[in-house]
Amino acid sequence: MSSITNVSRRGFLIGLAGAGAFVLGVRYLPRMVTQHDSLAYPTEADLATLHPNAFVGVNTDGTVFIVAHRSEMGTVIRTTLPLVVADELDADWKRVKIDQAIGDKRYGDQNTDGSHSVRSFYDVMRQAGATARLMLIQAAAARWQVSPSECRTDLHTVVHDATGRRLGYGDLAGAASKLPVPNREEVPIKPKTNWRYIGKGMDSYDLPDICTGRAVYGMDAHVEGMVFASVEHPPVFGGKVKSYDAQAPLQITGVHQTIPIDPFQPPCAFQPLGGVAVIADNTWAAFQGRKKLNVVWDNGSNESYDSDEYKKQLYATARQPCKVVRALGDVDSAFAKGGPIFEAEYYVPLLAHASMEPMVALAEFKDGKVTAWAPTQNPQAAQDIISKELGIPKENVICHITFLGGGFGRKSKPDYVAEAAVLSKKVGRPVKVVWTREDDIKFDYYNAVAGMYMKASLDSKGTPIAWLQRCVFPPITSIYDVNAVYGDPGHLQQGWTDIPYNVPNLRIENGPAKAHVRIGWLRSVANIYHGFAIQTFTDELAHRSGRDPVEYLLELIGPDRTIDFKGLTTRTTEPLRTHILGRQFGCAG
Fold it and tell me: Which of 19, 330, 391, 538 sits a CA distance of 20 to 30 A from 43?
């Protein structure tokens, strides 16, 4: 009987380039660290001689370890946030090593989503670096028997200008580690004039590994004894398995067994979709075995969903009065006065994320605990869903973060990581779940389909005196609440209720739409369809009036002013940011 040998992608390419040599089974794994007395899985920063907080450590050889607690998917956040720490620490970037954190609540929010890593952690990172710097200064001052105020730092060194004495960070790490960690209010932060790295530009810390093939992505994770799984998911959202052929896949060389996965219990949230998994020695065997399952499905209530008919429903709803979410002036009276009226409809279909690396995750269930390796944007969410699916404490779930071959919001939903954990428990071995590209597209958390209706009454110059806009889309909240049909305040604020136009009569509405697939966020989320409708309508109005579209847009934005969003009937828990509008403006959120 023939056998199939696993060949890594990198090994294959190296073999092609190596004068006929063929490299087999090259294995890549995230670095493992030995156990620590007080932490289940410490970083090298934790193990360093001086480690005043969770994000930075300094060893006696002068090596500085900085923890990256967010996920790297091409945004260079694994470089950006550590650079902030290094700047405040006055560390030599050449002597910095970045340590990828696992999912752990001690780092705060680890959901690398919403484009807020720098906004949320800039001050935290500055404080982390500045605290270590102050402790090193205090240690040097104590050795020299001078006041800390007489000392400063200069690239990995503490300096006493009055005497010209200098001490390296490695020399001071031991003494600094014995000092009490100062309170936040005691820690001075660098002035902008002293910034060394912030705002100056820097190559990605990971660029050499990415370019030479050493970077570890989800598909590269490997543990001894692991098997591969490919899952046949229900073709209709909410479908269930009626029957399948458990024996036919075993005819494929390398296939071990087939295992059913329970369907999710509504609401779906981040639960596995359910279906049947084929377990095999390699992905090829698993994929081929899947073709022989011959699953008979109970497709459930969403079987009748048809995108063309649904589009008609969205338009029909948008043409009727909907729930008012913001109002200014009297739109109905303005429309009733006559004058040119322009109406338009816009549609945006479901959008899949289609990241370069489809869903993949490796998990091992052993002794009541799960260790997972995954290209996830949200390791803490992975811990949560694995804990719930397997009925084990969250602290018994360790989630390592590999590099992400793209994410765009899809990989913040860890259903695929939970699949690997569920299957590992059933199989009794480590399991790597690998989705095909087709799986990735068919079973996404799609950015919502949307229908928009726009209407404006124009004056003699073609400028709107009344403006009405309605949007109808299945909300993201439907994955958490099966009865949710209206947009939530946060997503309505994304390019819709926060429109900054200076129109005297304005009404903004939102209509109901039931979700028939999993709805999720994609880069810029609701701005995708909201921005498309508003800006296209604006351009069409400019064209009808024969005016330059940029000048027309600037006139609609109006004079410099602060918008207080009077008439906004629904808000997020956080207030809209103040809009100071002039030639440039930003969106609220």
Answer: 391
